[in-house]
Amino acid sequence: MENTNVKPAKGKLGIMVVGCGAVATTFMTGVLMTRKGLTKPIGSMTQYDKIRVGRGSDKKYLHYKDIVPLADLKDIVFGTWDVYPQNAYQATVYAEVLKAKDIEPVREELESIKPLKAAFDKNYAKRLDGDNVKQCKTRWDMVEQLREDIRQFKETHGCERVVVIWAASTEIYVPYDERHHKTLAMLEAAMQVDDREHIAPSMCYAYAALKEGCPFIMGAPNTTVDIPAMWELAEKTRMPIAGKDFKTGQTLVKSGFAPIIKTRNLGLAGWFSTNILGNRDGLVLDEPANFHTKEVSKLSTLETICKADDQPDLYGDIYHKVRINYYPPRNDNKEGWDNIDIFGWMGYPMQIKINFLCRDSILAAPLLLDLSLLSDLAARAGRYGIQRFLSFFLKSPMHDYTREEEPVNNLFEQYTMLKNAIREMGGYEADEEID
After folding, report:
1. Local structure of 353: helix, strand or coil
2. Domain 12-246+361-425 classified CATH 3.40.50.720?
3. Which residues form the signal peptide (predicted)?
4. CB burial class (10 A; 0-12, 13-18, 19+) of residue 105?
5. What's the confidence (pLDDT) of residue 435?
């Protein structure tokens, strides 16, 4: 790491998670168990992946921590907000994702993680009804209370740095509105007059985090930081932002499999995706207004990989449908079915079926770790604004749509972006091009 100009990862890193449900508790429990040497952080790029640096006789493959100064797991301190008051141990048991043998060894640490009162508006998640909620007169008051939470957490736990990451439920869809979301001044004015239609609670979390010098990561498909006003705030505070929506199951498959069809120049007539899940996320998504937010996120992946304008014969008439169904018996064990109708030589049709029986929180937990550590790294490297190199972990990557920029959804192109960013921050040459 002699070539890097990134500031060292000194002191404690606070990770404040919005939401203390299945995803958050699986993440926190896994990190605590790993620190004790009782489990392995499988699925984490920052803990397992190796990147080639150098060429020829100088070529070597290194873990991320040997290229850039990542925060050590032993230096992480957890905090959380949630609408339910149960501590992290109680929430972990309730989630029924992990077995007792993987929870009890860190029971004491989990019990000490008590959720702060959430900034919550029931109109944005009608299926939730917790009582651990802040009493906020206005959206601006909500922001100020969240800023105080971050300051108090940082002081209480002696943290040098804090990252805020959203792992709460999907909010109802808030479309971009130029009158309220275009500039920072407009956004602040809307918060101050308590515009609850255009200012979602998640926007208050993001605003508070950035103003307190914390990177913010949006792990749901909420509009939140995907607006020019938030980009302006991130530039002003020189903080990284990333989003949106953790790429875990079906979309991970789609972003990896669709490039096979495109690269082979096969035609695509239709792609039907459906899911069943029974956790809190599934309950919230059973509400049509909340599902629409998720639908917009999931539908964006395919069209940016298989571009109709480039190959109208192959991708000019794709029928793409996505469905999510709440099914309580499965709890966190999500199942995704994909039916893919393709066509080949002389237009003859073929089909591909994919059935992915996955564990939602098991796939999401390493993403929270990687996104938190890499956002902290980006901040120490002086990278601010939209972190496109983190698209690898996200379902609907942020991009400047006001300038007609298209997101990169191809998993392999995203991986190239990730590797090159790590190389650059480590003082090595970025030597793979993205076509």
Report:
1. strand
2. yes
3. none
4. middle
5. 64
* Encoded tokens for 32: 């605590």
Whose CA is closest to 146, among 128, 120, 114?
Answer: 120
Domain range 250-357, CATH architecture: 2-Layer Sandwich (3.30)
CA distances from 100 to 25, 90, 97, 126 (A): 13, 12, 10, 32
Between the CA of residue 257 and those of 22, 138, 254, 261, what are the distances in Å?
Answer: 28, 45, 5, 7
Task: Pull the structure tokens for residue 82.
Answer: 């949630």
pLDDT tens for 361-401 read 999 999 999 999 999 999 999 999 999 999 999 999 999 99
**What is the predicted pLDDT for the residue at 432?**
80
Query: To the nearest whole percent, how much of the chain has pLDDT over 70?
Result: 98
CA–CA dist 401, 37 (Å, integer)? 44
Q: CATH 3.30.360.10 region(s) of the chain?
A: 250-357
Instruction: Give the pLDDT mean for 220-232.
Output: 96
pLDDT at 236 over 80: yes
285, 348 contact by CB (below 8 A): no
What is the three-class DSSP state of 150?
helix
- Give the H/E segment covering residue 142: helix 139-157
Check pLDDT > 80 for residue 303.
Answer: yes
pLDDT at 280: 76
In this predicted structure, what is the pLDDT of residue 1? 62
Cβ neighbourhood burial of 307 (10 Å; 0-12, 13-18, 19+): middle
